[in-house]
User: Which sequence fits this backbone?
């Protein structure tokens, strides 16, 4: 049998056998069963239907709904069923407020998904649906289906919004069950917790003929039920959030952040001006988009984590701690006398108070916010020291909040100065400026809030977070932030706390506008000069103590004036509101 | 003179060109859609034509370079392809496996190259004069196991099977006695039958009887029985130690209908597409099933379903006949060549091309598991096309340069 003479015949025989088998199978499939299969193919009897999970909703800490799903009518198109392309496009453009270019784009993108229903318009108004329903008989390619649409109940910057998945996202995520019709989180919590919110698709195989009989291709596993997305419970207190949102001056851009001292959970997260996220759920027309983008107040900008600003005098406690920790000063050290300014080298650096503060120790220097004390202190330490200490105090570094695209801020280095100002740059001037939070240093309001949160929390810095827990079908997960220590000893920390208390509660303190007879408010004002406008940025950051420190806050207002006169009064309002809320 | 007009196998070349043309037409159709009355085509067919142009160059080079050079590069090429198989594991996953080295403009599939380099090395070793039976086994197994192991890591079960087919056909062609072949396959059958005691007993009795009839010593028969019984015992233990999803993956490979949302659905759709083509087909570009979503590989692995739908039974039979004549010519050429190494190479090429044609078309017809093996010369794909044409060029070269008496 394996004699070499006959071997080629064996190869030929095997090859022939293979083709005979294939030929018989083909004959069976195409000639004998051909009629049957062409019937199945024509009517599309076998197909997979995707069952989409319900996207998780978002609630505040008191289970008050912030983002919900609202039922809606959605319009779908099946490109393979189109009889006359021009007529269909005309019908769509006339009735559904979709631009011609957009319709063509949808057709182009989905040309290989001929027999899939493609989402054309979400949330079609009831009136239009009733009007068009009769006409739809002429367009078998179009169909209505009920679905849900995301509804954002409050304007804010942290929830973010969902939008239609784009080609790039779809390509990356299609293995995870995202269809071309899927909505996906584009920013904020909706994006950060996309996988938790979205759930897992279910599928159903449909294999019945016209009379409802099963075609029996598959015996088992005909449905795979979807797993709905988890609901998110936030640390946000919506009452507080909405109250602050309502009292924030309308003509000013800025932010307020309030955090819970012990947990690092964010109670209020306001960035003004804000915008209605619902406009992004449906396809935004390019006109509306341009309007949004070109608005000089940048309503889309989340100033809490995407905006970076010089911190002004609110930064002084950090430099004071650096002085104390590196033993350049002690509680009793009095630095250069303030006569309304200080000569360093051949330059005169002004203090904000023209008549001067005289000789001060560190506690009073923070209380009166004397610039000269810090100018003098800065001459005794290096830029690298300041940079290092600031970063270890978690300023000008990312906090790791559970939101998208947080910015780190900026602290200039010597190298940076040389690269930007040339070889012979004098390093003293910028360093002196930075000591009072002016110049090139940039922080985010969130970083400031959490620095003061850490001061209130006895030096324990907590990573900020907005999510408190996730409640899913099968699991509930509690979230909490990572804890780290500020580089400061207990003794020095108490000294900083004392000076923050005096700054608000004693006569001539800069933050007296936020003082209360029965509530202990600690804080530091700031008025940062900047190139954006004539008025300074107003800062007021601190924390409030009842039996123990409970909340930390930051108020930041772009080009609004002085921290003590603009930001502190606003803080006073919400502290009072919170106090009332506490009692209730 | 590059081509010896009388010795050159023109028929083989013509069949090949014919198959390639069918492929381009099928790819053109598979990447065309129709909305209303408008047609639109992706440029896959142009890329395929470009690959064909490049492979003509390879064909000419193969014809030109002297045989000793090919022989000399056999080992370095094998090592090179093994290195590529290692490198590919570090490239990002595409569709759940590390099969492609992505180079921006195009992707390389190293497992395709490894097929031909392994085949060349195997023929070189098996054709050594005075090689003993034991040595054949000892030398050839590691050569195959190395790439197979790396390809299983990707993971790509289907392609790794091709290597076993090559090895087995070469061993069958060599002077290895039949009982060795039986011994080689017996563990595989033991694994399959180990799920049913009754089947296994029948199989063991048959195996022992067969080996005994071949007048082998009782020691060999006995040890074969022991090895197989050991496999019978160990398989269920190993099987149970696999995770459920791993078990499911293997089960759906054997029976795709277990996975209705993946391979099963693809096979049903391919069957419906081919079946609905009937005798004459729906006509060029007029297929509808190719555009159903969930059947994304219609221009690669499932291209035969497009042919079946649009050109019907007659079109399919035409393709089958072309393939048969093509492979028949290769099969017949083995006897015309006297150099052992070349004969081995041609046997390997014949068996792996036939295997791929059988598995791919069988998969489209729903009679063979879905393996991700493309249809040679027809499916879209550069690496595959270049390697296959390189292989055929070797056959043509050997025929062209053979000594005639």
Assistant:
């Amino acid at each position: 049998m394996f004699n070499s003479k006959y071997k080629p015949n064996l190869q030929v025989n095997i090859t022939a056998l293979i083709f005979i088998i294939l030929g018989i199978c083909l004959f069976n499939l195409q000639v004998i069963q051909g009629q049957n299969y062409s019937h199945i193919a024509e009517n599309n009897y076998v197909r997979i239907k995707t069952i989409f999970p319900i996207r998780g909703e978002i609630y505040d800490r008191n289970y008050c709904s912030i983002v919900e799903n609202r039922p809606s009518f959605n319009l779908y198109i099946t490109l393979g069923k189109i009889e006359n392309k021009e007529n269909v496009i005309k019908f769509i453009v006339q009735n559904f407020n979709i631009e011609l270019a957009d319709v063509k784009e949808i057709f182009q993108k989905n040309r290989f998904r001929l027999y899939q229903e493609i989402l054309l318009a979400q949330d079609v108004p009831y009136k239009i649906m009733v009007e068009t329903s009769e006409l739809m008989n002429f367009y078998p390619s179009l169909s209505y289906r009920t679905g849900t649409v995301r509804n954002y109940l409050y304007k804010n910057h942290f929830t973010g919004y969902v939008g239609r998945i784009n080609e790039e996202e779809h390509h990356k995520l299609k293995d995870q069950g995202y269809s071309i019709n899927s909505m996906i989180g584009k920013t904020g919590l909706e994006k950060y917790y996309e996988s938790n919110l979205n759930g897992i698709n279910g599928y159903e195989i449909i294999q019945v003929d016209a009379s409802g009989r099963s075609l029996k291709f598959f015996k088992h596993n005909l449905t795979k039920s979807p797993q709905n997305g988890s609901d998110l419970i936030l640390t946000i207190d919506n009452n507080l959030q909405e109250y602050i949102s309502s009292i924030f001056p309308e003509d000013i851009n800025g932010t307020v952040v309030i955090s819970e001292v012990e947990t690092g959970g964010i109670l209020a997260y306001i960035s003004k001006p804000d915008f209605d996220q619902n406009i992004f759920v449906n396809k935004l027309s390019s006109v509306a988009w341009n309007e949004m983008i070109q608005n000089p107040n940048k309503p889309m900008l989340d100033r809490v984590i995407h905006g970076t600003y010089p911190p002004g005098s609110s930064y002084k406690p950090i430099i004071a701690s650096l002085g104390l920790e590196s033993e350049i000063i002690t509680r009793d050290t009095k630095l250069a006398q303030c006569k309304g300014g200080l000569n360093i080298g051949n330059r005169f650096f002004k203090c904000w108070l023209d008549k001067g503060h005289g000789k001060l120790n560190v506690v009073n220097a923070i209380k009166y916010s004397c610039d000269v004390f810090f100018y003098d202190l800065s001459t005794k330490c290096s830029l690298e020291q300041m940079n290092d200490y600031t970063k270890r105090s978690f300023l000008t570094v990312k906090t790791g909040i559970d939101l998208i695209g947080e910015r780190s801020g900026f602290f200039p280095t010597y190298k940076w100065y040389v690269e930007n100002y040339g070889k012979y740059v004098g390093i003293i001037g910028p360093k002196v400026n930075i000591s009072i939070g002016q110049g090139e240093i940039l922080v985010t309001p969130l970083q400031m809030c959490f620095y003061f949160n850490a001061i209130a929390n006895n030096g324990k810095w907590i990573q900020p977070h907005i999510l408190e827990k996730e409640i899913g079908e099968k699991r509930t997960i509690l979230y909490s932030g990572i804890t780290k220590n500020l580089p400061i000893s207990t003794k020095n920390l108490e000294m900083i706390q004392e000076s923050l208390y005096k700054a608000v509660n004693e006569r001539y303190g800069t933050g007296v506008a936020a003082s209360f007879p029965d509530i202990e408010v600690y804080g530091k004002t700031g008025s940062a000069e900047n190139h954006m406008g004539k008025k300074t940025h107003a800062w007021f950051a601190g924390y409030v103590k009842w039996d123990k420190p409970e909340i930390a806050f930051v108020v930041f207002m772009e080009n609004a004036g002085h921290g003590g006169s603009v930001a502190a009064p606003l803080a006073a309002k919400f502290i009072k509101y919170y106090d009332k809320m506490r009692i209730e | 003179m590059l081509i010896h007009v009388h010795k050159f196998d023109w028929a083989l070349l013509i069949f090949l060109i014919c198959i390639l043309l069918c492929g381009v037409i099928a790819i053109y159709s598979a990447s065309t859609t129709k909305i209303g009355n408008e047609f639109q085509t992706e440029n896959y067919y142009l890329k395929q034509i470009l690959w064909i142009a490049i492979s003509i160059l390879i064909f000419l080079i193969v014809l030109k370079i002297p045989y000793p050079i090919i022989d000399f590069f056999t080992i370095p090429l094998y090592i090179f392809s093994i290195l590529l198989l290692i490198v590919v594991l570090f490239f990002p996953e595409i569709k759940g496996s590390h099969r492609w080295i992505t180079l921006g403009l195009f992707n390389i599939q190293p497992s395709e190259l490894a097929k031909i380099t392994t085949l060349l090395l195997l023929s070189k070793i098996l054709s050594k004069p005075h090689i003993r039976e034991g040595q054949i086994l000892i030398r050839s197994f590691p050569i195959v196991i190395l790439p197979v192991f790396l390809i299983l890591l990707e993971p790509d079960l289907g392609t790794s099977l091709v290597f076993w087919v090559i090895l087995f056909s070469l061993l069958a062609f060599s002077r290895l006695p039949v009982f060795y072949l039986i011994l080689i396959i017996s563990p595989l059958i033991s694994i399959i039958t180990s799920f049913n005691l009754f089947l296994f007993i029948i199989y063991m009795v048959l195996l022992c009887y067969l080996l005994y009839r071949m007048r082998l010593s009782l020691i060999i028969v006995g040890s074969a029985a022991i090895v197989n019984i050991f496999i019978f015992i160990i398989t269920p233990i190993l099987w149970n130690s696999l995770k459920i999803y791993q078990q499911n993956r293997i089960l759906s490979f054997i029976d795709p209908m277990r996975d209705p949302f993946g391979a099963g659905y693809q096979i049903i759709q391919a069957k419906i597409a081919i079946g609905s083509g009937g005798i004459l087909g729906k006509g060029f570009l007029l297929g509808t099933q190719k555009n159903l979503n969930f059947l994304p590989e219609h221009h690669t692995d499932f291209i035969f379903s497009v042919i079946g739908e649009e050109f019907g039974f007659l079109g399919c039979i035409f393709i089958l006949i072309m393939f048969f004549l093509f492979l028949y010519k290769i099969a017949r050429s083995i006897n015309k060549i006297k150099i052992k190494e070349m004969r081995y190479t041609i046997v390997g090429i014949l068996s792996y091309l036939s295997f791929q044609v059988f598995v791919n078309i069988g998969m489209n017809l729903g009679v063979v598991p879905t393996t991700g093996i493309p249809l040679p010369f027809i499916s879209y794909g550069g690496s595959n096309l270049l390697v296959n044409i390189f292989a055929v060029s070797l056959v043509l070269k050997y025929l062209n340069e053979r000594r005639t008496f």
User: Anything to note?
Assistant: Chain A touches chain B through 58 residues (CB under 8 Å). The CA atoms of residues 501 and 522 of chain A lie 4 Å apart. The radius of gyration of chain A is 33 Å.
